[in-house]
Amino acid sequence: MLTAKQHELLVFINQRLDESGISPSFEEMKEALDLKSKSGVHRLIGALEERGFIRRLANRARALEVVKLPEGGNVRAGNVTRLAPAASESRPQMQLPVAANDVLEIPFHGKIAAGVPIEALEGQSSLSVPMALLGAGEHYALEVSGDSMIEAGILDGDYALIRKANTARDGEIVVALVRGEEATLKYLRHEGQQIRLDPANGSYEPQYYAPHEVEVQGKLAGLLRRYH
Question: What residues are annotated to the active site?
Fold first, then answer.
């Protein structure tokens, strides 16, 4: 089932592809759906991608392809029960130009330790991120403080792009909230009845906690780095 906004966006993207062969920008989608920010567009795109209605074309920051449409292409979301092939399946394939990166504003929540745990600050600011760096789901950004993850290529002052999640597999880099107070960026592993948070720096020791002391708040999705 698609929501009304998801359905509206899907039809809009398909119409633009029919007209020009180029998918609309996030700014155009935001204006067409009368949304307040591009974050809303990103959530809708992620939902449509997860449900198999659209897919992003590799190596193209802005290019989207409609995989399927609700039957008829104009039925209300509440009445969608069957799916039909998208119009894009029958139209001639076009070579799309590489478009400039769309930028998405994601919440910026301050610093997180790549060392001993420190407080992850909740803030109202945001960070502009190329959409090509993000996949489906909700994201936020944290500034890395410390050097315990340098062997994973994560340096002090980097911006960690985090996809919200409350579970993770062994070996994934996560934002771990420790004892409900402090957050840290580490590899997550299970060892017996304990949770082990591993650094990526031989100068630091692993940290061991009881399962109830560690809460996963997200998984590393990407990094931004500034050079001065």
Answer: 148, 186
